[in-house]
Amino acid sequence: MLALSGLAAGSSLLPRSLHAFQTGAPAGAPDAYAMPQPDLQGPVLPTWESLRDTYAVPRWFNRAKFGIFIHWGLYSIPAHGSEWYERRMYKDPEGTQWHAEHYGPQDKFGYKDFIPLFKPVNYHADEWISIFKRAGANYIVPVAEHHDGFPMYDSALTPWCAGKMGPKRDLTGELATAARRQNVIFGLSCHRMEHAYFAYPAKGLKTDEFDPKYAGFYGPPIDQEFNSGNNSKAFQMDWLARVQELVDKFSPQLLYFDNGVNAREYDEVKLRAAAYLYNRAREHGYETTLATKDQAYLFATVQDFEGTHHAPKWPYPAAWQCDTPIGNSWGYIEGLKVASGLSLIHQMMAVASCGGNLLLNVSPRGDGSIPGDQQKALFTLGKWLGANGEAIYNSRAWIVPGEGPSIPQTPPGDWKGTSTADLHPVHVESPEAKPYTEADFRFSAKDGRLYAMGYKRPAAEGPSKCSRQGKRK
Prior knowledge:
This protein is of the alpha/beta class. It has twelve helices and twelve strands.
């Protein structure tokens, strides 16, 4: 456990040396790394102690219970492999070959060349929000900038963004306006910290990534493993500047960071980002929260678990959410295998029974349309929530998550959830999955009531039978 005393920047944790050569475009260039604004004056200081003492989980968070994550960007245009297309087209043997066969060699057609192909003619923000509301969602979290380093909004800090290139539209801003017009809580996700090393090319591959003309977009990338903590100070300051811009442009009520910020080496800049978010929210009068993974933030965050297989398997006391994709990729790919509506219902039941929120990712096409099979699954979940939402929205976990042969009756070894950042996780034996039966139920509690949600309708006529009765004590 980390002691709080003197931990304002984690300086005692012996950070690794940083790479001074990672400087981006030359100073003074329009796409050079940005410098952040000064810290805001306010009650929240950039220290762990201050975050601990001033933070409260937003009241809206547990009431909302169900949100929509959105992965949509340049990677949606080739629609191959996953949203990690950029990394794979430069680094992975299959990805490099596929890209060369379909678009040409990487030194002739690089990832930047997808920007003019990004024409979201079927993107209508109000329609998206209507779809999500029909699904029963109460908040949305679009990815404002993914690992690829292309902001989906009109940034004042770089010309390499959707507002100035490609679509030449503030795609994120349009969605924020539509969400608030329809009373949906608006959050954001920023994955920029991963950009520095995301697409370092395979040895010997000729690419466009180190051409000085594109330094403001590519970095250029550094040869480091994920979550290594070696991003340069210049890059860290640019990251902070972009986080500040997101806060000031969009007033997000949830700001999600991926695993790239986990390293203790980034504590100083992370603390400044958190203090900026929380002080600006207090100034403007709205409730907000960070959402982060593992121990990225020691305080002042909603705990996030990626994928239902990593989520807690037993009532978990802290505020948490599980982000999970609707298909076999976060970003749209051709042939995406979409989960059934029934599967989404089961995921919602399982997460709520352990006290969490479900943040379900959808994968729009490059043209901005949401495929029909994803909409069908969403609407099936929405219909179920329309009839059974009383057991979900604003509910809490009961003393056990449920009953029946397929539901754990004692805390399993991974009951607290598991990490998606650990490259060598400790294997924990889990009970073998069993088919759901009429005797399987998930529980939730609210206002002195215990709710039982059955997995399977009884074969015979009559009500389902659950052994639990009475009110929560």
